[in-house]
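Colleagues,

Please find the record for the three-part complex below.
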Amino acid sequence: MAKRVGMEVAIAAAEAVGMCNVDVAACYPITPQSHIAEHLSDIVADGRSDTEYITVESEHSAISAVMGASGTGARAYTATSSQGLMLMHEILPIVSAMRLPICIAVANRAVSGPLNILNDHSDIMPQRDAGWIVMFTENGQEAVDMSIQSFKIAEREDVMLPVAVNIDGFQLTHMVEPIEFPDQKDVNKFLPPARKPYATLHPDKVVTMGAFAMSDIFSEMMKAKNEVLKNSKKAILEVWDEWERMFGRRYRPIETHRTDDAEVLLVTMGSMGETAEIAVDEMRDKGVPVGLVKIRLWRPFPFEEFKDAVKKAKLLIVTDRAVSFGGPGGPVFSEIKSALYHEKNRPVICDYIIGLGGRDVAVSDFVTMMEQAIKDNEKDTIKEYEFYGVTE
Amino acid sequence: MKKEKKWPEAWHEVNVGAMVFEPCSAREYHTGSWKARRPVWDNTRCIKCGLCYIFCPEGCISQNEEGFFEADLNYCKGCGICAHECWPKAITMQEE
Amino acid sequence: MNTVSNFDLFAPRLADKNEYFSQGHRACQGCGEALAVRLICKALGEDTIISNATGCMEIVSSMYPNTAWGVPWIHVAFENAAAVGSGVEAGLKALRRKGRIPDRYIKCVAMAGDGGTMDIGLQALSGAMERGHDLLFVCLDNEAYMNTGIQRSSGTPMGASTTTSPAGKFSYGQKTWKKNVPEIMVAHRVPYVATACPSYPIDLMNKVKKAREVKGPSYIHCFSVCPTGWRAASDLTVSLGRLAVETGMFPLYEVEDGKYSFTIQPEELRPVEDYLKHQGRFRHLTSETIAMIQDGIYQEINNLQDKVDNLHSWSELKQKKG
């Protein structure tokens, strides 16, 4: 019988990882990830998970160490935020190129400068092109479920790619939420305790990992990397189907809320989706037919599912929690515009950059954004993107 | 069973993760074409100490059935270390 | 006359016949580093996994689709050989304990050049050694960033001309003395620390074998003559290594549990010119700079002798009273 408890989300995520028979974990502390790293080491110290826990001396060494471990066939895990993820940046494309199925939890936090320990998505956005599978969680239950799912997805032979699970720092990681933990035996059924690696570093079958490539073969390798990531969506959907069958909770690349008869859609990604839902309900109560589209799977980008969700929309109000400075606004906005460029009936798309550096975004803020965008759209004065709520 | 792959490989033929599964396959590349000089053994002077075998950076010097040494000219780069280190001066470097 | 007084005439019989670093690698003619790696691998044997940093050895051996390696080998990036090695060690430990791989001891070895050890790799090395992983770290020191075009590193000897510390009208080349990383390793209480040189192949292979036996961290700093970067004739590789030892430029010693001892000690040091004169990278030196280098050598050797004579092992210190 699955048990339902109230638990801090970071602790819960660590508990979920503790159920996955991780062989090697290497974490370097950074706020707000530290509770994940600390609790995982508690779990290991109490013998509840048979894991080699390497207290590395930097995040760069954390990702490097889990790569080495993954190369031997071990199930490997790490977690980080912000500057730590930026320090790992050099290595991230190498992990996916070498097809090592590492799982990482990113407790999203603003990237310096200036230094800010609070939540936004500027840490994960620069890793967009690294070739990883990237997913966003919205609440504690998802943080637990997706942490366990990530190993299964990563290790499938038709995937073999690293997976990043994003959990908004403080705004989600440090919240106490009601969470239903699956039973260990069910987790073991879903995710076999022993990873079955494709190739391992072992003298019984000698392999060279990390060869270098000249230009006569490099492009072929990059295409292969792209195809693998694109095709992993199929595997992700299958894993989510299995999760639904076993545990009753359904996960989709794009989640929608009251979009069926809506021509105006709000788009969010991450924990603010819950707040946005309430705002959409409020607008509906006022008689304004709006809907909400929530992006769960960021990479590989679910073009089909997204286009399907917005096919009837005339106005898309995208919210971004990161900025591409000097560029087209926020990264989610940019990706959506690109995804819909060739559509015959393209909606008007506008972007609000919100919640940077931990700034709170209330239900009323979402309502204001929607009302303003609708009004501006009617008057045809809609701005492409704007920083919402900035003191002018 | 190894499938013969043409070069360059098609994108879907490249090994997973660009791993190389055949150890020491570098032997396919014959570095012997690099040399400008080759080592020649005078077996009347050779004392079979094996120093040339030890000091060859290519590891291409081996002992034949009689116990004398010779370089595999497919790989010998002609660096001359063996000739320089040979105590009885049994090895001389000759122009290619 | 070069003396090889410590050399065993039955050397080939002591070395593993297998070539774990095969022919066909693309190192320069006369590469001292390739020779070192070849001999080190013979001493390690087949139950080894190597985590290699970016550098000469990595590039010359692993051009897809081929590899010169006959042992399991992983390369990730430049500065993290020790971190990757730590992960390999932890992975093997976990898998062996859980019965997922055979219960057989496999040695984890991390290899990097002087750049990947002493400069960009120093953090990862320090972390791995401090955490006590069962990892042998081998630094292949050719005294500059050779693979990228002979730029200076903290391993470049004083007075050497490199492409980023070139000799010129106002400069005599590298201004600082070689960073003493073996000393840093001793400060980490690494149980076995040694310097080695392939010109003394038995000494090198014995040290590798000793390091292999340590169930904990170990470190070997291996002198790698680079004829290309040092502007020397390709056939002088082994004799230059010997001269480095005989002039005191690169002393051969080991530190076991904190106790220092020379493994090869020339009766009397040869003047350093004997070593410098064969190398183009030192060609610009005046008698003043050579004297400065000679002073530096005496400092290093005397300091080392002091340690050999006076320092006790950590175990002895436990028992010593007052």
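Chain A has a mean pLDDT of 97.

Comments are welcome before we finalize the supplementary table.
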